[in-house]
Write a structure and sequence with these properties.
- There is one protein chain.
- Helices cover 56% and strands 0% of the residues.
- It is mainly α.
Length: 131
C-alpha cells in the first residue's frame, strides 16, 4: 500500500469516527473553598510561631550570649596578663618571634611602606627597622 493510500484511509477513519468518543468529561465538584477559615488558621499559626521564637530568643539566645561574653572576657584577661608578664621580663617590650624565613616575607614593596597596612608597634614587628 502506498503512502498516499494509507494517509487517505487514515483521514477517512478520522472523519467517520464519532467526535464525542475522543474526550472524557468527568464532572468533579469544585474543591471546598473556605478562604476565611484558612486565613484565620494561618494567622493563629503565625502568632504561636512568633511567640515561640520570642521565647527562644529571650530564654536561650540571650543567656548563651552572656555566657559566651563572660568566657571570652576570661580568656582575654588571661592573655593580657600573660602579655604583661612577658613585657615585664623583657624590659617593657614583647620578645621578637624567631626569624623564620616565611614570616614577614616581602616579594615586592607595598605602596604604603614595608609594614602592614594596619601596623601596630605594640604587637607587630617593625619591618622598616628590621633590615
Amino acid at each position: 500500500m502506498s503512502f498516499f493510500a494509507r494517509s487517505a484511509a487514515a483521514r477517512v477513519l478520522l472523519r467517520t469516527s464519532p467526535k464525542g468518543s475522543r474526550t472524557i468529561v468527568v464532572d468533579t465538584p469544585p474543591p471546598p473553598s473556605d478562604y476565611h477559615a484558612k486565613q484565620e488558621a494561618l494567622i493563629a499559626h503565625a502568632k504561636v510561631t512568633a511567640e515561640l521564637w520570642r521565647k527562644v530568643s529571650i530564654y536561650i539566645a540571650m543567656p548563651a550570649i552572656v555566657v559566651a561574653a563572660l568566657w571570652v572576657n576570661n580568656v582575654e584577661s588571661e592573655h593580657a596578663a600573660h602579655a604583661e608578664h612577658l613585657m615585664a621580663e623583657n624590659d617593657g617590650k614583647l620578645p621578637q618571634p624567631p626569624p623564620y624565613e616565611y614570616l614577614n616575607r616581602r616579594v615586592k614593596p607595598f605602596p604604603w611602606g614595608d609594614n602592614s597596612l594596619f601596623f601596630n608597634p605594640k604587637v607587630n614587628k617593625d619591618m622598616e627597622q628590621a633590615e
